[in-house]
Amino acid sequence: MSMFNLKDAPRDPRPHAYPCRRWLSGSLGVVVALILLGAPADGLAQSARNAAYLELGGSAIGLSLNYERRFNERWAGRAGFSVVTGETSEDTETTLLFPLTASWLSHPASSHHMELGGGVTIVTGDSQDFFESFDDDVKRTSAFATGIIGYRYQKPGRGFQFRAMATPVAVSGDFGIWAGISLGYAW
């Protein structure tokens, strides 16, 4: 089963056979709702409302560039971008990944936070042949669900941000755990 193609998953007539797909759709809906309907961040203990960071591992699996917006003192949403390339004897395969997540942060007035969250990573482009052989010319678009369980160091206000996390990943009924770290700046 390819990590990046949910369409190839076998169909099961039982409605409970693929709860991951419902969870994936629900996660995307929650992330979009939080981004669109998030409360203004005025008067927060964490006065930094924006952050930009590089993440290695985590929701985009590889290296990603991310922007985060605080909705209120405990909730934040993130959108990221990553490019994965691979070369074959015939051509170069390119896949784009877009992680979208929402996170809850503990202790907003402190520099040390527990971070819990989840979301979806949208994948488009060449298949990258991670698990099976596919026609190299086929472009695919799919998504997988991710979670965030981690530690965040960020002082109240502007400044350096560090994150270390475990990232549960759900793809076509298969589950795994990635690790990730990120370094960035909050303003």
Description:
- It contains one helix and eight strands; from the N terminus they run αββββββββ.
- With 187 residues, the chain is mainly beta.
- It has an eight-stranded antiparallel barrel with strand order 1-2-3-4-5-6-7-8.
- A hairpin with a 5-residue loop joins strand 1 and strand 2 (63-70).
- The chain starts with 18 loop residues before the first helix and ends with a strand.
- Residues 4-18 and 38-44 have low confidence and may be disordered.
Structural descriptors:
187 residues, 1 helix, 10% helix, elongated
Shape: elongated
> What percentage of residues falls in helices of 4 or more residues?
10-25%
* Strand numbers in spatial order across the main sheet: 1-2-3-4-5-6-7-8
> Strand share of the residues?
over 45%
How many strands in all? 8
Q: How much is the average pLDDT?
A: 80
- The total count of helices amounts to 1
Output the helix-strand order: HEEEEEEEE
Q: Which ranges are low-confidence, i.e. pLDDT below 50, for 5 or more consecutive residues?
A: 4-18, 38-44
> How can the largest sheet be summarized?
8 strands, antiparallel, barrel
Spatial separation of the terminal alpha carbons? 42 Å
Based on secondary structure, the structural category is mainly beta
Radius of gyration: 17 Å
